[in-house]
Amino acid sequence: MSSPEAIGELLAQGTLALAGVSRSGRGYGNRILRDLVAKGYRVFPVHPEAGELAGYAAYRSLADLPEPVGGLVLVVPPGVGVRLIREAAALGITRVWMQPGAESKEAIACGRDLGLTVIAHHCILVLSQSRG
Questions:
Q1: Quick count: other Cβ atoms within 10 Å of Cβ 93?
Q2: What is the pLDDT of residues 42-90, one digit of tens each?
Q3: At what angle do helices 78-91 and 105-113 cross, to 10 degrees?
Q4: Strands 71-74 and 15-19: what pairing?
């Protein structure tokens, strides 16, 4: 389980990367994008093939982001998450939130082995609060 302190630390970040927004506009990642933006977060969608998602510029990789982010939210299959966790660590992103379904023992262990703060088994939509 993730500590309340780790959750609060990630949620205190103003800028987040989000992997798992779908091109169809109907995925759970899309809902998370809309919700986080509505709550005042700056969110950069990451997608290996899309240039735009839900009206927002999308970035092919974490390395392509236009500025540093305070955390990475994963709404992707666990195998994809492991690759993104390694990329995040290499770029100095120290906080990763794995939505239910994105987590796996391997992904959680990978993040922790790389020294990242890993949040798993919690839904960001339930725990995020309005920013003001």
A1: 21
A2: 999 999 887 877 788 999 999 999 999 999 999 999 889 999 999 999 9
A3: 10
A4: parallel
Cβ 16 vs Cβ 71: under 8 Å: yes
Q: Is residue 132 part of a domain?
A: no
The amino acid occupying position 78 is: P
On whether the CB atoms of residues 11 and 128 are closer than 8 A, the answer is yes
Helix (H, G, I), strand (E, B) or coil at 125: helix
CB atoms within 10 A of CB 115: 9
The total of structural domains in the chain comes to 1
Structural domain includes residue 90: yes
At 84, which CATH number? 3.40.50.720
Residue 17 is part of which domain span? 4-127
